Amino acid sequence: MATNNLKAPAVALGTWAWGDSGETGNGYFGSSLNQAELKNVADNAHAAGFGLWDTAMVYGMGRSETVLGQVLKRFARSDYQLSTKFTPQAAGTGDDPVADMLEQSLSRLGTDYIDLYWIHNPADVARWTPHLIPLLKSGKVKHVGVSNHNLSEIEFANQILGEAGYRVEAIQNHYSLLYRASEHAGILDYCRKAGIPFFAYMVLEQGALSGKYNAENPLPRGSNRAETYNGMLPQLKTLTDKLASIGQQQGAAAPDVATAWAIAKGTTPIIGATRPNHVDGLVRACSITLSSDDIAELEGLADATGVNTRGWWEREMLV
């Protein structure tokens, strides 16, 4: 039986971009990463008290997990938490594809347990959710969550786990100023009432809300995120300018304010960290106070952009 409820941190560290090969055009982000700098990211995070790292087998088909495992191995395992995922769309053909994918993740991450294991996408809730139960019983997985599930799928997964004495302990969905489907669909309210942490990914929309990019300085050409966001950067300018101006008043920058908004909404943002200074931004984000007027103005400007940033892998949350 699960006895210790998951304690969600103020922010979590995302490593989706760590799966890119570093070659522009080969991956989502087009970021040039090297392991020495990623070690500095981990050092900064460790010093700042941030310890939950989120990855997945499908981030670079194992590259993100492998690099993360190498970067963290010089820390005591008790000093950090690992969050990774079973992705049904990448399931193998063995008798227990969930256990098989977990074993591969454990090997790449250099550990014998995962703190938080997710069903990544709801391909078949009835089929895949029960496979989490023996993993919880074995201790190889300490807590479980579901990602990209709509409210009825979350409730169904919770029912399946509940019959074995467990529960869905975390939800992870795309949630940002530009994409609030989980809020409109009642998922945030559900989490609040049930005491389930909600982890928000793509809070910065892969950098489009960082204020760093604009029509004159677009996202890295040849990357998937450039294809998705470069065309909408002009529509985002008023919003990112407002994020920057609020930040200036509090000694912070635009992405810090976008992250602070997600915290103010009661979520744990998962923020991609590829540079040591990204961690400094998270420290600032945790100290920012946004008024209800600030939040309302930001959401109004976001709604006025008229853009839709739902990922190709996501289904509508409103059903």
What labels describe this entry?
single chain, 319 residues, alpha/beta, TIM Barrel, eight-stranded parallel beta barrel, 13 helices, 41% helix, oxidoreductase, Aldo/keto reductase, NADP_OxRdtase_dom, AKR_Detox_Biosynth
Question: What is shown here, in short?
Answer:
The protein has helices spanning 35-48, 63-72, 97-109, 125-128, 132-138, 151-162, 181-184, 187-194, 224-229, 233-249, 254-264, 276-287, 292-305, and strands spanning 12-14, 52-54, 81-86, 114-119, 141-147, 170-174, 198-201, 268-272.
What does this structure look like?
The protein is of the alpha/beta class. The chain has a single domain (12-305), classed as NADP-dependent oxidoreductase domain (TIM Barrel, Alpha-Beta Barrel), CATH 3.20.20.100. Helices cover 41% and strands 12% of the residues. The protein is built from 13 helices and eight strands. It has helices spanning 35-48, 63-72, 97-109, 125-128, 132-138, 151-162, 181-184, 187-194, 224-229, 233-249, 254-264, 276-287, 292-305, and strands at residues 12-14, 52-54, 81-86, 114-119, 141-147, 170-174, 198-201, 268-272. An eight-stranded parallel beta barrel has the order 1-2-3-4-5-6-7-8, surrounded by four helices. Strand 1 (12-14), helix 1 and strand 2 (52-54) form a beta-alpha-beta unit. Helix 1 (35-48) runs parallel beside helix 12, helix 10 packs across helix 11 (254-264) and helix 10 runs antiparallel to helix 13 (292-305). Residues 11-301 form the NADP-dependent oxidoreductase domain. It comes from Dyella flagellata.
